[in-house]
Amino acid sequence: MNITPPSPTRVRIYSHVTQSRFLHVEDALAIGKLRLFAGNYRKGQGMETHAHAFVDMDDARVILGALACGEQSFSYREFKGTPPQNNQDAVSRILAVAVKGENVYVELKSGPGKVTPTGAIAPNGPAKVAVNITFKLYEARRLATAVLAYLHAWDVLRMMMHKQFVGQPAPYLLVATASEQNGVSNGTAKPETRPTQNNGIDLQKTVVANGRPLTSKSNGQAIGKAASPTNGSTAVKQPQQYGNGTVVDEKNMTEVQTYQQYLAEKQSAPASKTALLDFYRQRAQMVAG
Question: What's the CATH code, domain 12-154?
Fold first, then answer.
């Protein structure tokens, strides 16, 4: 059994109806537009004439914003239309909005059109249909405010639906300054060095995953502890260091976190800030991939 799906119904965001005219603002957000549908009618006899226009979202926000705040002397006019199709001639559509004192005028026209060299549709003679709707300024502000609220809700819904596709901003990159002995200067990478302490112990080998030096005994003092008047009984926290002796900038949380990740993975301190930067970039590429 074949079931024919029902034809889609346009959502009417707002309707302004008088005794002889109407203007509907309809949802066409699937194509990034609002649809204005207006007409003249006689009570008990039905609609006599009607016209419609599609307004791009960017233009609609400007128009509605001006109406919502009652911007005096505001005016807007656009020329659009439908190109020739199905053996029918092009149709020209004109939309005009104007604020004059306490009145707001909206006009929709349609008639024969022609395709310009740029592909736009221009009028090709007098309009065949013209619908004019007059608002009091307060009525226009009420319409504009209601439609803007609808658009704001649509923006939020769209953001929620697509939030899983939005990438997280990358943290600030670690930059090796030229003042560091192991940094990059004038585009040339300097060779990394691994100096040893005066007692002959390699600093790179004395660092474990927690970022602190080992407490190997040398000359009666423990590495990672400073001598004190009480013969070294009070431990002093040592700063995290690279293999070449450069100290990690504890104010740069990205550098600290990347340093700790390096330690956890490599079980040793990075030889220099440049090495840590390379590690950071590799991680960033893996996440991006």
Answer: 2.30.31
